Amino acid sequence: MEDTFLCHGIIWNTAGPRLALARPDGTTAAMDVAEGTRLGFRVLEAGRFCLGSHRVQGPQARHHVPCPLQAPAERGYQCISCFLNDDLRFLHDAHRSGSAPDGLRAYLAQPHWLYVATFASGTSKVGTSSDLRKRLRLAEQGAVAARYVARAEDGRIVRVLEDMVSQQTELTQAVRSAAKLSGLQAPRSPAELDSINADHARTVRNLLPGVELEGFAAVDQTWELPEPGRRVIGSDSRTAYPLELAAGTHGLVLEAFLGSIALVRTGEAGPAYLADLNGLKGRRIELGVYQSQLPPVQVSLF
Q: pTM (2 decimals)?
């Protein structure tokens, strides 16, 4: 049981990406996924399991509460009970409803940033990040190019701006993980992605002077893609990992990350693949010396 974990997915901190894990007793762990790391595991059961809930005390204080029943996930990555007890469920609607626990209100009281992010396919979105996670938020998202377009006094104001932008432009507030992965299989050039992002950011900044809302200022700041992400976008590999991560056994050598998408090999000299490790989120896994049983590849004669 020492090597059995519930996977919480890829998280980013100032040191880079890590694989977040929880032991059966609920205590947390994190696995370094630096270049050259070998990740061997088998998925123990079908289906996703609840990742628990959070209690928010302020901008830097958050407490994770493991699911007491270790129940199957029913809504996203949570059971219904943990969803209803999660302070974060109020996060994206507090600016409309006015309802939020005191700790979340304290979190929202810090400065926030409005950004425009562009992904490998050229798909772009508008989003927000807290001041404390200003740059890490975009690294977690898997953006290739991004610009900050406004700084708001708090999280309520920035989400009002976000809603306004998504209503008045073609920018959505979310890009699906599958779309991010497929975009990396046929990416646009970094220069083209930067140009697309700059155009969208300019459009948003041109809207801001007409907004009848106090507590924010327009900005023009460019986000820099972390080095691991540059390695992924610059790789010649355009093939998705051919196995379903949510089942079976896998042995991966990790080379670099763009968000939760890793450039991986199944051996030192084998071909490189693109694998979204958030496919493990909510899965019960056992770490160990496991191998990927890849399907045979038919070589074209022509």
A: 0.92
